[in-house]
Amino acid sequence: MSIINMQNLRKEFASLVAVNDINFSIEQGQVVGLIGPNGAGKTTLLRMLATLLPPTDGTAEIGGFDMRKNPLDVRKKIGYLPDFFNLYNDLTLTECLEYFARAYAVPDESIPQKIQTSLDYVNLTSKKDSFVSHLSRGMIQRMGLAVLLVHNPDIFLLDEPASGLDPIARIQLRDILKRLSSEGKTILISSHILTELSGFCSHIAIMNQGRLVLEGDIEHIEREITGFGRVTLKVLKDAVRAQQLIEKFPDVSLEKTLDSTFHVQVTGNTQTIAKLNAHLVSHDIPVVHISEQKTTLEEMFMEISKEKNLQVS
């Protein structure tokens, strides 16, 4: 079931078309990585979905509500974290969350528990009486998520949440987002740090110059780009003869050889890998290891950029 359904969504700023007639649906529970070069329109798209920026044309149904007709109902369903946001530095974490809980119209009797749950979720309970001004950059980002969690939205719209974080803080943030994903929350996250999306997103959407260039399941897109995938294969002996057999085998191409290890591009299917293994064994080549190698998001993005002639900044 689609929880976000964009219909010809468009945003113009004078002569600039920032978002160009996007049609795109996101299913409940999906984690979609929104990627693209600077100026692609990612932030503008997120701000429209957050009902902070009215579209020039088109609309989107979010959580069952039309963003143009029922923006307040949409806001009850979403949590939006912009790239740059401010918290009140002279409040403690508890006071800050209480403020936002009341802004979200959380019932008074539920606020203490909501605050506790949110702090526990982002591992900031020990800092509950600390002032916001005393938090590190990584803690601020986690606190930003805690602010969203006090009203428990179904949809998270996150604009570059890992920007400026050190490696440890990025891992902490990623773990929180993975947990949200495991609980069935829908997440649309933009990022230039593609390694942070690897192994986390179920789908990707690539924007360029306001247009949606490509979107879909990561594995499906990977197959479109690279065929079935890449396989690493290691033999126990006769590496030279193994290489000759691999090079002549249909639906595969040898990318790289290192001693007795071969990196093979497969354009067929899983049966091709099984047949290649059997072919080598039938010629007395002992195969001691064979595994599929996943394409990274960086590799996919660069390959798509070449194919679609994207302007990468």
List the SSEs and their pairings.
Elements: E1 2-13, E2 16-27, E3 31-35, H1 42-49, E4 57-62, E5 65-66, H2 71-77, E6 78-81, H3 93-103, H4 111-121, H5 137-149, E7 155-159, H6 167-182, E8 186-190, E9 203-208, E10 211-217, H7 218-226, E11 229-235, H8 239-248, E12 252-258, E13 261-266, H9 270-282, E14 287-293, H10 297-308
Helix pairs in contact: 3-4, 3-5, 4-5, 5-6
Taking the sheet with the most strands, its summary is: 6 strands, mixed
Provide the β-strand percentage band: 25-35%
By CATH, the topology of the largest domain is Rossmann fold
CATH domain class of the largest domain: Alpha Beta
What's the shape?
A: elongated
The CATH homologous superfamily of the largest domain is termed P-loop containing nucleotide triphosphate hydrolases
Rounded Rg: 24 Å
The strand order across the widest sheet is 6-7-8-3-9-10
- Count of individual helical segments: 10
Query: What is the distance, rounded to the nearest whole angstrom, between the alpha carbons of the first and last residues?
Result: 35 Å
Roughly what is the average pLDDT, rounded to an integer?
Answer: 88
CATH architecture of the largest domain: 3-Layer(aba) Sandwich
| Helix proportion range | 25-40%
Low-confidence stretches: none
